[in-house]
Amino acid sequence: MQIIRKTGAFAAVLVLSLVLFAGCGQSANADKTIKVAASPTPHAEILNSVSDALAEEGWTLEVVEFDDYVQPNVATTEGDVDANYFQHVPYLDQYNQENGTDLVVAGNVHYEAMGVYKGTKKAISELADGDKIGVPNDVTNEARALQLLAANGVLTLKSGVGLEATKTDIVENPYNVEIVELEAATIPNSLPDLAFGVINANYALGAGLTTDDAIVYETADSEAAETYVNVIVVNSENKDSEKTKALVKAVQTEEVRAFILDKYKGAVQAKF
After folding, report:
1. CB hemisphere CA count around 204 (13 angstroms)
2. pTM value?
3. Contact predicate 85/38, CB 8 Å
4. Residue 82, CA distances (Å) to 35, 57, 197 in order
5. How confident is the model at residue 166 (pLDDT cuts 50, 70, 90)?
6. Rounded distance, CA 270 to CA 272, Å?
7. Is the model's pLDDT at 11 over the cut of 70?
8. CA geometry: angle at 22 spanning 6 and 75, to 5°?
9. Strand ranges in 54-166 using DSSP code E only, listed in sequence order
10. Is the model's pLDDT at 222 over the cut of 90?
């Protein structure tokens, strides 16, 4: 009986050791996983292009796709993901201010040219009294859309408002168009009800829109091109972590620059 008890005790210790070892293995694997929240296009596509490169360095990349501009920051703040990649700095600053969060930029990646896309009209000259133009309803992207419309003669904005413009800053509206504020992701599907839609490139690409569907884009030397660089974002305490450094290093390469140029034909441009 004594031998049986010893054997049983040894077996229990062995089983416990195996469980602990397996748990350690799972923890180690989890620690080598970089989980990133991203918009499907082009962000998730760009991230997935570096998956093999990260694997060669011992990292597993897990991309979690979101279709809105809020949940990726929530997931990052709460620690459900290690980083996110979907936004530009003005939007990040606005989000931090409104939500009391401390999310920071880990690295620049790309710039997306916002465009005016055809709806029921094919040229600005076709605009008529009461036509509707859809713009994003978040503060930073709405200002950007209004500036693009102003640059192309659709309307005139109050002098000096820059990238803080709102509908109330419109001082001349020669076509008497109605500016309709919509959630950015919904504008592509709303084009049949709009004369034009001013659309962020990620949503335009995701909806299958091409350069043939747009009448004009922001220029490469515009204020927006320098301001609205899309960035990798992390919690401030993780800015210098191994995961963050590995992710940024993998994305900021000449291979990624070539991937962006080849896949997006100029609608998306590397900015690192």
Report:
1. 26
2. 0.69
3. yes
4. 5, 17, 34
5. very high
6. 6
7. no
8. 145
9. 60-65, 83-88, 103-112, 115-118, 132-136, 156-157
10. no
